[in-house]
Design goal:
Layout: E1 2-8, E2 13-20, E3 25-27, E4 33-35, E5 44-48, E6 52-54, E7 69-75, E8 91-100, E9 103-104, E10 109-111, E11 121-126, E12 129-130, E13 132-141, E14 144-155, H1 183-190, E15 229-230, E16 236-242, E17 248-254, E18 264-265, E19 276-281, E20 287-292, E21 296-301, E22 311-313, E23 322-328, E24 334-340, E25 348-353, E26 360-361, E27 368-374, E28 380-386, E29 392-398, E30 405-408
Parallel strand pairs: 6-14
Antiparallel strand pairs: 1-2, 3-4, 5-7, 7-11, 8-10, 8-13, 9-12, 13-14, 15-16, 16-17, 17-18, 19-20, 20-21, 21-22, 23-24, 24-25, 25-26, 27-28, 28-29, 29-30
Length: 420
């Protein structure tokens, strides 16, 4: 394994090589160091932390061992000044596996998390890892190969198939790096059963709201309980925020901080115990459809985008006991929702024209069907169904009703809130 720390100043660079096993280092201009055998930029420094304990969903596994492999890159110009603002697509890594059954899931070419900062630093994160073995990371900066570094990686996904399940409790890896495979390693695997590479979040998280993280659920200035909606072009997010009266109101904000950080209020429910929730963007991105008080479907133009920002009720000719989880179709013609006719009935999926009218029932049965979402072509609706108090599964159904198909049904967990 290769593990090194580099201490550098603008004029004078001192290098401390702590441990070198898989490659030797060569001096370059401006104090840059890189693996031998490469033709690196003379001013790129990079390092990574060894001994990763991972799961395919990128959750933390063991204190003291990273669950994701992070590569730190420092880039300067020929005068040894930091190169700032170098875009992520100019810095990337690829991976190979010299030993073991290790898999870097989903991304054969992994770009930097962000542009280089004022110090010329950025990071590349390999998020989802399966199997166990040695991962060889090859760095490229502005298309120039910078050599490789190796890292030991062990994951709860013993067989490397992208998901941790009961089959991974045999032949486990030494996840805690104590030199022996024993019951403590099996316990770590069991703590991550059903973790999948499909659950991993890629890239660096960017905070987009200024809500109260320390407040109790339901307090003023906390997030509501419904979905978060992306605008069709990905530039805005709609969400729910509790106002001073603790009512849920629909808010929207830019998804990218370069477009600003202002959150604006879209909906203004009347005083009383009525919440607005589940914002869904119309296909042109100029309107948002949402629910109010488990009884109304509304649509409203977005300020500074739509010329008409009047709040309009979408009339539904059937009276439901509860009506929730609104979602507008990709062509903007229909709204899907989940509703309960009487206390004796279950929640089922319905659709109604965006102009209002007679709702059409899409699902039926003796279970609750919630949170419908449209496929991009508008031909299919996915939803989740509560099967027992401990299990829920995701299903799909033709948008005009028909045969229901299982998408994902874990044996002992809840699969909920599906999205395409």
């Amino acid at each position: 394994m290769l593990l090194h720390n580099v201490l550098y100043a603008r004029s004078l660079v001192l290098a401390a090589v702590l441990s070198i096993a898989s490659a030797s280092l060569a001096r370059a201009d401006c104090g840059g160091f890189g693996p031998m055998g490469s033709t690196p930029e003379p001013n790129v420094l990079w390092s990574l932390k060894d001994s990763v304990s991972a799961c395919p969903a990128a959750d933390s596994v063991l204190a003291g061992h990273p669950s994701r492999l992070r590569i730190k890159v420092y880039y300067s110009d020929d005068a040894c000044d930091a190169k700032t603002g170098v875009p992520p697509e100019s810095i990337w890594v690829t991976t190979t596996v010299p030993s073991g059954n290790l898999v870097a899931n989903d991304q054969p070419k992994i770009f930097a998390d962000d542009s280089t900062d004022a110090s010329g630093i950025t990071r590349v994160t390999i998020v989802s890892l399966s199997g166990c073995g040695t991962l060889r990371v090859k760095l490229y900066v502005t298309g120039v190969y910078q050599g490789y570094l190796d890292a030991r990686v062990r994951s709860t996904d013993t067989n490397g198939d992208g998901r941790t399940n009961s089959s991974d409790t045999t032949s486990v890896c030494d996840l805690d790096y104590n030199g022996a495979v024993n019951s403590s390693d099996v316990s770590l695997v069991r703590e991550h059963l059903e973790d999948s590479h499909r659950n991993a979040l890629f890239g660096t998280q960017v905070r987009r709201t200024n809500l109260c993280g320390a407040c109790s659920n339901g307090a003023a200035n906390t997030i509501g309980d419904g979905v978060i909606g992306w605008s069709p072009n990905g530039t805005r997010l709609a969400y729910e925020r509790r106002n001073a009266s603790k009512q849920c109101t629909i808010m929207f904000t830019p998804s990218d901080p370069t477009a600003g950080n202002e959150s604006r209020q879209l909906s203004f429910p009347p005083p009383g115990p009525r919440d607005d929730y589940d914002p869904s963007w119309a296909p042109l991105g100029d309107q948002v459809v949402y629910g109010r008080g488990d009884s109304l479907i509304l649509r409203k133009g977005v300020p500074d985008i739509a010329s008409d920002t009047t709040e309009v009720v979408i009339p539904v000719t059937v009276v439901f006991l509860h009506l929730t989880n609104e979602s507008i179709s990709p062509d903007g013609s229909l709204v899907a929702f989940s509703a309960q006719v009487t206390n004796a009935d279950h929640f089922h999926i319905f659709t109604v024209p965006v102009t209002g009218g007679i709702p059409k029932q899409i699902t039926s049965g003796s279970t609750d069907d919630r949170y419908p979402e449209w496929s991009p072509d508008g031909k299919t609706i996915v939803f989740y169904r509560n099967l027992t108090s401990a299990t829920a599964a995701v299903y799909s159904v033709p948008a005009d009703s028909g045969t229901i198909t299982t998408v994902y049904a874990p044996a002992s967990a809840k699969a909920r809130l599906p999205h395409y």
